[in-house]
From TrEMBL:
InterPro entries: Cadherin-like_dom, Cadherin-like_sf, Cadherin_C, Cadherin_CS, Cadherin_N, Protocadherin/Cadherin-CA. One of its GO terms (biological process) is anatomical structure morphogenesis. It holds the Pfam family Cadherin. One of its GO terms (molecular function) is calcium ion binding. This is Cadherin domain-containing protein. Residues 11-95, 96-204, 205-312, 313-417, 418-527, 534-646 form the Cadherin domain. The lineage of its organism: Eukaryota, Metazoa, Chordata, Craniata, Vertebrata. It is found in: Cell membrane. Potential calcium-dependent cell-adhesion protein. May be involved in the establishment and maintenance of specific neuronal connections in the brain. Gene3D superfamilies: Cadherins. It is a single-pass type I membrane protein. Keywords: Calcium, Cell adhesion, Cell membrane, Glycoprotein, Membrane, Repeat, Signal, Transmembrane, Transmembrane helix.
Length: 768
């Protein structure tokens, strides 16, 4: 019953006043049990406090009671109460063991009985175990028995004979059912193990075995693992293996049989060539009380292994041979063999693909090596021919042999020059016998076929043979000049040189040689205009009234050297007045730079040098003495040219001097003062400059008739003028203030260079 359920009303059953229960302190005691019940003092009802389990309170009893005491005060009264606990079918039958094991021999006769463990149900009466049931089985059934106390138990009965080899274990389910409503049940597994008897002989998987094994298999290699089975168990199924009497001793010596496992392994060497098939019989025997046995036949087939290398035999080989040997010529005969059989004994012979030979099969396992392409010793002087023979086994085995074929040289190559055309430049004026060049040809042949001889192919030029001008060393091809060449006479030669080998027949080739004579600057310019006798001076006359830019003379020089060396330039080497004449450096024309004045000397001396463009340069000079002629009108005036130089310096100012004539007096005074100051500062004596139209800067008398003015400043030429005859220096044009010049008076003829053997004096001019 659930907690709180009312079992009875004690107040009613005991005829008690409900209202006085609290006052009389009604108490409920349960004797020797847990307090499963209690009383409600307000109503007098007996109710369930905790759920009651009859099997726990009264185990294995058919009846079950709870004894209670009700105590009341005022007056004290005690009531004894018994509450009967009625059983409910709340427990299922349960076997003591969930699994029941039975061992039954397969030789047990049918009808044999076997006791089974019974089931227990805590419930009582009709709720206890009433019957047993067994799952369906071909071999077993059960019979339910009743004990003295009414308990039920079952017995297992063998219906039919057992066969362990067919069914070694039988799994059964035993079910116990109680009589409650609804009925409850419990189950247990019954495992019947069928015990063996030696009623089965060992059996092999197959009666006949065919085994293939490779020859040369290592000792201990597994041939076959025999497996005989016996359906029995235990010692009845333990098997030992042995050879039968029909197995030969040779076979037993070659193969080892393990008596426990049935493994057959290689014991001795297997050789396909010695014996190819082994027959044996093996017996399997069990260890039962009455032993049973079975046997099988084994045939071992030894397979051929590719364990023999193919062999090569050179039957014929000719070496050396000429390089011009004909195609399809047989060079060698080769035979091949292999001791193996089948594909292992089939062999193939080949040579490298990049050779001018091929193999041709002449008969079984015989081959001929023939020439398939033209041979050239210059490309390959010898061939290392490797014959490789390979069988068709798996893996294939091979062998090789190398033969060296040497080629003999044939004169089949003409000499070859590195170039087909040689250009050789020779400087003129060369020494006779000078080496010009080395013309060496190459012949790839050998020995006498490569020994070369050089020749000059004759060719006449102006009735002159080439062998008179040049020679060649026949052994090494060195080309020499036999004479000295002059560019101005002959500037080039063209001929052929032949190189010939010493073979039979000899082969040759030639090359064209172009000799170019290179010009040297060995010819000085020759002045042809103006013409003069050797060492004489050219005299020319021109009127003094010649205009500016007029052609005075033209110097023409010729040079017989080449264009570069014959390019001539003209320069003044000496000139009386550099401001009066100009010289064109390219065409040699001498022209006036201005008109002649009355102060210019009547005779002018011009030294012109004609220089070529060679290295080093060569030159020629011509001296022109130029005389000026006066007209009759100006003849008297021409005598004034001898006026002292100090009066002519300002004549070029023209109109500007006329305009400034008014200030001359003032400037003259300043000039005199400056001159006095300079004379005081300079220890050298200097003559006073007389007042005049031209200011005299310096006058130095020389014992030499003519002198040349030289300065370390090129600008002096435009500022000063030297009177070469009187050794005087005068101002030509206005001089910038503060300028300073250092000039020297040198003897005439020394040029513009102050040499150590020249008499010279230095003058410093300071302008204020």
């Amino acid at each position: 019953m659930k907690e709180g359920s009312v079992v009875a009303n004690l107040a009613t059953d005991l005829s008690l006043d409900v209202k006085t229960l609290n006052q009389r302190k009604m108490r409920l005691d349960i004797i020797a049990n847990k307090k499963y019940l209690d009383v409600n003092k307000e109503t007098g009802e007996l109710y369930v406090v905790e759920k009651i389990d009859r099997e726990n309170i009264c185990p294995a009893k058919s009846s079950c009671y709870l004894r209670l005491e009700i105590t009341l005060d005022n007056p004290v009264r005690i009531f004894n109460i018994e509450v009967e606990i009625l059983d409910m079918n709340d427990n299922a039958p349960q076997f003591r063991r969930d699994i029941i094991h039975l061992d039954i021999s397969e030789a047990t006769s049918k009808g044999e009985r076997f006791s089974l463990s019974n089931a227990v149900d805590p419930d009582v009466g009709t709720n206890s175990v009433k019957s047993y049931h067994l799952s369906d089985s071909e071999h077993f059934l059960i019979e339910v028995q009743t004990g003295r106390e009414g308990s039920k138990f079952s017995e297992l009965i063998l219906k039919t004979a057992l066969d362990r080899e067919q069914h070694s274990v039988h799994n059964l389910i035993l079910t116990a059912v109680d009589g409650g409503t609804p009925a409850r049940s419990g189950t247990a597994s019954v495992i019947v193990r069928v015990l063996d008897t030696n009623d089965n002989a060992p059996n092999f998987n197959k009666v006949n075995y065919n085994i293939n094994i490779m020859e040369n298999s290592p000792i201990g290699s597994l041939v076959i693992d025999l497996n005989a089975t016996d359906l029995d168990e235990g010692s009845n199924s333990d098997i030992t293996y042995s050879y039968s009497l029909y197995t030969s001793e040779k076979t037993q010596d070659t193969f080892q049989l393990n008596p426990s496992t049935g493994e057959i392994t290689v014991k001795g060497m297997l050789n396909y060539e010695d014996l190819r098939i082994y027959d044996m019989e093996v017996i399997a025997t069990d260890k039962g009380a009455s032993a049973l046995s079975g046997q099988c036949s084994i045939k071992v087939l030894v397979e051929d292994m590719n364990d023999n290398h193919p062999e090569i035999s050179i039957k014929s080989f000719q070496s050396p041979v000429k390089e011009n040997i004909e195609l399809e010529t047989v060079i060698a005969v080769v035979s091949v063999s292999d001791k193996d059989s089948g594909d292992n004994g089939v062999v193939d012979l080949h040579i490298p693909d990049n050779m001018p030979f091929t193999l041709r099969e002449s008969s079984d396992n015989y081959y001929e090596l023939v020439v398939s392409e033209p041979l050239d010793r210059e490309k390959a002087p010898e061939y290392d021919i490797t014959f490789t023979v390979t069988d068709r086994g798996s893996p294939p085995l091979s062998d090789n042999e190398t033969m060296t074929l040497e080629l003999l040289d044939v004169n089949d190559n003409v000499p070859q020059f590195p170039q087909s055309f040689y250009t050789i430049r020779v400087m003129e004026n060369n020494a006779p016998g000078a080496l010009l060049s080395s013309l060496t040809a190459f012949d790839p042949d050998l020995h006498e076929n490569q020994y070369l001889v050089y020749f000059i192919l004759e060719k006449e030029i102006a009735n002159t043979s080439m062998s008179m001008l040049f020679s060649i060393n026949p052994e090494n091809g060195n080309l020499y000049a036999l004479k000295t060449f002059d560019y101005e006479i002959e500037n080039e030669f063209l001929f052929h040189i032949e190189a010939r080998d010493s073979g039979s027949p000899p082969l040759s080739s030639n090359v064209t040689v172009h000799i170019i004579i290179v010009d040297q600057n060995d010819n000085a310019p020759v002045i042809v205009s103006p013409w003069r006798a050797q060492g004489s001076v050219v005299e020319e006359t021109i009127p003094r009234s010649t205009d500016k830019g007029s052609l005075v003379a033209k110097v023409i020089a010729l040079d017989t050297d080449s264009v570069h060396n014959s390019r001539i330039t003209y320069q003044f080497l000496q000139v009386t007045d550099a401001t009066l004449f100009s010289l064109d450096q390219y065409n040699g024309e001498i022209r006036t730079m201005r008109m002649f004045s009355y102060r210019d000397p009547r005779h002018q001396r011009l030294v012109v040098v004609a220089k070529d463009n060679g290295e080093p340069a060569l030159s020629a000079t011509v001296t022109i003495k130029l005389s000026t002629l006066e007209t009759a009108v100006n003849k008297a005036y021409s005598d004034m040219t001898e006026v002292p130089l100090e009066y002519d310096i300002f004549s070029d100012l023209n109109l500007y001097l006329v305009i400034g004539l008014g200030s001359v007096s003032f400037l003259l005074l300043i000039t005199i003062l400056v001159t006095i100051v300079l004379k005081c500062q300079t220890p050298k004596p200097s003559s006073a400059a007389p007042p005049c139209r031209n200011s005299v800067l310096s006058e130095r008398n020389s014992t030499i008739a003519d002198s040349t003015l030289v300065s370390n400043d090129a600008y002096w030429y435009s500022m000063f003028l030297a009177e070469t005859r009187k050794g005087k220096m005068v101002v030509r044009q206005p001089v910038p203030k503060g300028s300073r010049y250092i000039v020297s008076s040198l003897p005439r003829g020394t040029g513009l260079t102050n040499t150590s053997d020249s008499a010279a004096s230095t003058l410093q001019v300071s302008l204020i």
